[in-house]
């Protein structure tokens, strides 16, 4: 009873202080609650748009947090939901679906419908509920969007993992009869699990997707509203590497032996004449002489399109800007990529080394050489672009199986570059049989 009386007395004292100050606390509360009286909430629209555009250019989720500051900011700025796919500004380009390992493939019952994503620039993790993986398989991650294939109907959909927006495309099986005109081996036609996708959006909001089909050395496209995929009537000698960049699909044609590789750019079909797309050969951007660059790969790093490969002696890694080669400059090799660490292994990617404690910046990890021996057989070789020296990321080999647990973050990131393991619940190792069939 004594405690109750003490609390009542304290409350009375607090009320008396508020009344003695002439209601200052009440007026302050009203000012803070009124957006028109708040300095931040009353920012000029032009200034607010400028800040929003810069935040959005940095990261989509930062933009979402920006809009959550107050009602005025939320009303003034565009909402990503409903426009996540059709507006390229809202594509989560820096995000990659994270391979869990431990047999936990996307859609595994133990994950309860959740999937984790990893930011390649900041190292941030987010967990999103995506129950669609129960009957879909993920094929690629263009611009951070998820390219999903329905397990039975093979219908393709493009899913924005953070807004939930979905764009549907024709079944991938619709391409089989058309490819049969050019390829007699039907089992080879059906092998479309490994694709590289490029997404573009025209002025009226039509989404077009181009798929590079490495095993068939061809490209196919479909737009929203189409009933089937359209493959090219022409084919490449050897589709060695493909990368989406600026709405186009850049391809390395060749890459083997002493024959120079060609860098091709494949643009989406023009709205005025889409029927001619399949017969018009791609534009050759440049040609890579073998004496300058062997086994070239495409990678996007620091918002630039780069070519990375070996020198003629196969002992050093060399970098070229595609823009320099396009201008005829073949002597200007790139000597620094800053804090970026580039991973080369089928699907190539650049990651900020500040989020990878065991990998230094300005380096290149060559996943394709795990079974080779540049830094020791069965290890992940790492090349220091500044010093020109080789080292290895891990102390032990992983030829027949993955490294012992717990897995390092670097090993998870390297798994993203090998799609046989990326969505299978398995962690990268040299024995590819470990990843076969695990996603089904």
UniProtKB/TrEMBL annotation:
UniProt feature coiled coil, ranges: none
SUPFAM superfamilies: Galactose oxidase, central domain
InterPro entries for this protein: Gal_Oxase/kelch_b-propeller, KIB1-4_b-propeller
Family annotation (Pfam families): Beta-prop_KIB1-4
Superkingdom in the source lineage: Eukaryota
UniProt domain KIB1-4 beta-propeller: residue ranges: 117-366
The name this protein goes by in its record: KIB1-4 beta-propeller domain-containing protein
């Amino acid at each position: 009873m004594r405690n109750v009386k003490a609390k009542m007395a304290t409350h009375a004292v607090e009320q008396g202080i508020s009344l003695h100050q002439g209601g200052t606390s009440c007026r302050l509360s009203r000012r803070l609650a009124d957006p028109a009286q708040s300095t931040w909430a009353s920012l000029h629209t032009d200034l607010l748009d400028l800040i929003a555009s810069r935040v959005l250019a940095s990261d989509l989720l930062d933009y979402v947090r920006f809009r959550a500051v107050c009602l005025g900011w939320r009303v003034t700025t565009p909402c990503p939901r409903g426009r996540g796919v059709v507006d390229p500004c809202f594509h989560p380009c820096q995000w990659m679906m994270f391979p869990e390992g431990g047999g936990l493939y996307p859609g595994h019952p133990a994950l309860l419908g959740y999937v984790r994503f990893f930011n390649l620039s900041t190292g941030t993790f987010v967990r999103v509920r995506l129950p669609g993986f129960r009957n879909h398989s993920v094929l690629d991650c263009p611009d951070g969007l998820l390219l999903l294939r329905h397990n039975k109907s093979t219908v393709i959909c493009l899913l924005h993992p953070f807004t939930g927006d979905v764009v549907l495309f024709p079944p991938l099986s619709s391409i089989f009869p058309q490819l049969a005109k050019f390829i007699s081996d039907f089992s080879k036609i059906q092998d479309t699990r490994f694709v590289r996708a490029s997404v573009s959006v025209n002025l009226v909001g039509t989404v077009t997707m181009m798929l590079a089909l490495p095993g068939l050395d061809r490209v196919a496209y479909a737009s929203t509203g189409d009933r089937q995929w359209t493959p090219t009537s022409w084919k490449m000698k050897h589709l060695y590497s493909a990368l989406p960049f600026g709405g186009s699909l850049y391809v390395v044609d060749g890459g083997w032996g002493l024959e120079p590789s060609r860098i091709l750019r494949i643009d989406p079909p023009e709205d005025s004449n889409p029927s001619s797309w399949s017969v018009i050969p791609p534009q050759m951007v440049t040609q890579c002489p073998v004496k300058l660059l062997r086994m070239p790969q495409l990678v996007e790093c620091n918002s630039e399109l780069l070519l990375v490969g070996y020198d003629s002696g196969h002992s050093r890694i060399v970098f070229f800007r595609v823009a320099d080669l396009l201008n005829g400059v073949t002597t200007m090799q790139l000597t620094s990529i800053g804090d970026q660490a580039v991973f080369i292994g089928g699907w190539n990617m650049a990651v900020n080394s500040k989020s990878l404690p065991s990998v230094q910046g300005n380096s290149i990890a060559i996943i394709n050489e795990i079974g080779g021996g540049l830094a020791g057989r069965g290890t992940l070789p790492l090349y220091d672009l500044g010093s020109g020296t080789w080292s290895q990321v891990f102390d032990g080999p992983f030829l027949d199986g993955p490294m012992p647990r717990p897995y390092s973050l670097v090993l998870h990131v390297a798994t993203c570059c090998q799609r046989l393991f990326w969505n299978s619940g398995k962690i990268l190792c040299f024995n590819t049989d470990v990843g076969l069939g695990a996603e089904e």
